[in-house]
Design brief:
Blueprint lengths: L25 E3 L5 E3 L1 E4 L9 H14 L3 E3 L7 H11 L7 E6 L6 H12 L4 E6 L8 H17 L2 E7 L3 H8 L8 E5 L9 H7 L3 E5 L3 H4 L7 H11 L3 H10 L4 E4 L4 H10 L7 H11 L9 H4 L6
Parallel strand pairs: 3-4, 3-10, 4-5, 5-6, 6-7, 7-8, 8-9, 9-10
Antiparallel strand pairs: 1-2
Helix pairs in contact: 1-2, 1-10, 2-3, 4-5, 8-9
Length: about 300
């Protein structure tokens, strides 16, 4: 994997940032592992599909050049992801596989073992606590993280992190953690930039990953970033989706996206390394995006007007 460089300081604070290399860039995490900054996600659009359709979508993504595959227990398609990995013929060592724990009926280890069995893998590259509500109390959240640390120590999860955590949840696990999360995956797009959360991540050596990166183009139109996406797409000879993903990557943030379209997934692999937004363009999208608020997920927990 190639390290990448960016005018923006990467989320991990070890000084290694993104460099344009002609391929999808990677980011060095605080534990020294590298994560591809574009991931094919198996949630949302694919979680309710037919088994063969899901497997074929993941297989198409791998064959198109995606090496980062983002799954989860709650998506209900870890088995399909594992089948796609085996059918692809791509060596396991060349893939970065993420999965997440959503429910814990007994122990995190039991949930993790079940995920590995469904995936048909000996290890995952990244294991995430999918949401802080997996625990009912701060003490229980600290216990959950301690169990995740044990999985990391076993070598079966090479990196560990969290998803959908706010600053208060991160501070809770910091109080007892032996190992901090290397990443926090959150909904992130121009209309949900989470206030000071990304800066908090950077101060603590935590990378940020963004799911729902195309929300401004899909669920939240019309809006103040529409025109600049059109203008920049024309300037660089790409699509608005490419611009939206590049806005994420050029901030040193990992972008998680999905599609059932072979043409679209191949387009991401070929187009995203071919251009880079200027710092001024990144800032302008951020400024325009701050003029509107839209949350597509977890409104029942955080509320549609919660900008954290």
């Amino acid at each position: 994997m190639n390290s990448i460089g960016s005018t923006f300081q990467p989320a991990a604070t070890n000084g290694t940032g993104p460099k344009q290399t002609g391929s999808i860039p990677t980011l060095k995490l605080s534990d020294g592992n590298e994560i591809p900054m574009l991931a094919f996600g198996l949630g949302t659009a694919l979680s309710n599909g037919e088994s063969e359709q899901i497997m074929n979508a993941a297989l198409t993504a791998i064959k198109a050049g995606f090496t980062h595959l983002d799954g989860a227990e709650v998506y209900g398609n870890e088995k399909e992801l594992g089948n796609a990995i085996r059918k692809s013929g791509v060596p396991r060592s060349q893939l970065f596989v993420t999965t997440k724990v959503w429910t814990i009926s007994t122990t995190v280890k039991a949930a993790f073992d079940a995920s590995l069995e469904r995936l048909g893998l000996d290890y995952v590259d990244l294991y995430l606590v999918h949401w802080p509500q997996v625990a009912e109390t701060p003490d229980r959240l600290q216990q959950v993280w301690a169990e995740v640390e044990e999985i990391h120590a076993s070598g079966r999860a090479r990196s560990i992190g969290v998803s959908n955590f706010l600053q208060e949840h991160l501070e809770t696990i910091f109080r007892t953690a032996k190992t901090k999360p290397v990443i926090n995956q959150v909904e992130y797009h121009p209309y949900l930039q989470h206030g000071d959360l990304v800066d908090f991540h950077r101060r603590h050596g935590i990378a940020t990953a963004a799911y729902g990166p195309l929300t401004a183009l899909t669920k939240a139109q019309p809006g103040p970033v529409d025109d600049i996406f059109v203008s920049l797409a024309r300037k660089y000879g790409v699509t608005g989706s490419d611009v939206a993903l590049r806005w994420i990557i050029d901030q040193g943030i990992v972008a998680v996206t999905t599609s059932n379209s072979e043409q679209r997934v191949r387009g991401y692999i070929s187009k995203l390394p071919s251009f880079k937004l200027t710092p001024a363009e990144v800032q302008e999208i951020s400024h325009l995006g701050s003029q509107k608020h839209y949350r597509g997920f977890f409104n029942d927990i955080y509320g549609p007007n919660d900008r954290r």
